[in-house]
Design a protein that fits this description.
Layout: H1 4-12, E1 15-17, H2 21-26, H3 28-42, H4 47-55, E2 59-66, E3 69-80, E4 85-94, H5 97-114, E5 119-122, H6 127-131
Parallel strand pairs: 4-5
Antiparallel strand pairs: 1-2, 2-3, 3-4
């Protein structure tokens, strides 16, 4: 994986942060296409739904930025279950993951702890367990379409 010196050098040139909403709206034309590819996988959200959710305080839309600009956007939600609170990574879209991933893991671990979350979870392709350093639970997601029903 990453050597300590590489990780430190890259982290110095990368920021993973939750921007103020007015800044997010200002940069939305750049962020929206990044999230579109991820939201198309489920068909349950469009990027504008995520922006509305961020404005209501339900979701966090984080930016992964380097000297080149915005490399990726990550959407999170804190979910309260009866016995646990978790930070859910809902959507990730963008490029240059090798550049921002170590800093993103550090920032989200810190954020989850600060907000009282027991763990971080994501529902996604199998490779996310490897790149985020998570544990695959062995569960699968089963989706059965119901024809032309939209809702």
């Amino acid at each position: 994986m990453w050597g300590q010196s590489q990780r430190g050098a890259l982290a110095a040139s990368v920021a993973v942060r939750l921007p103020p909403l007015d800044e997010l709206v200002h940069k939305w034309t750049h962020v929206e296409p990044m999230l579109l590819r991820a939201t198309k996988r489920t068909g349950c959200y469009e990027p504008i739904d995520l922006l509305k959710g961020a404005m209501s305080g339900r979701y966090g839309i984080w930016l992964c930025e380097s000297e080149a600009g915005i490399d990726a956007a990550i959407v999170t939600e804190i979910v309260n279950y009866p016995r646990k609170r978790i930070l859910e990574m809902m959507f990730v879209g963008g490029s240059n993951m090798a550049l921002w991933l170590p800093e993103a893991v550090r920032v989200f671990d810190e954020h989850a702890k600060k907000t009282g979350c027991a763990h971080i979870a994501c529902l996604g392709r199998r490779s996310w367990g490897r790149v985020w350093g998570g544990e695959l639970t062995g569960d699968v997601v089963v989706v059965r379409g119901l024809g032309d029903v939209q809702r």
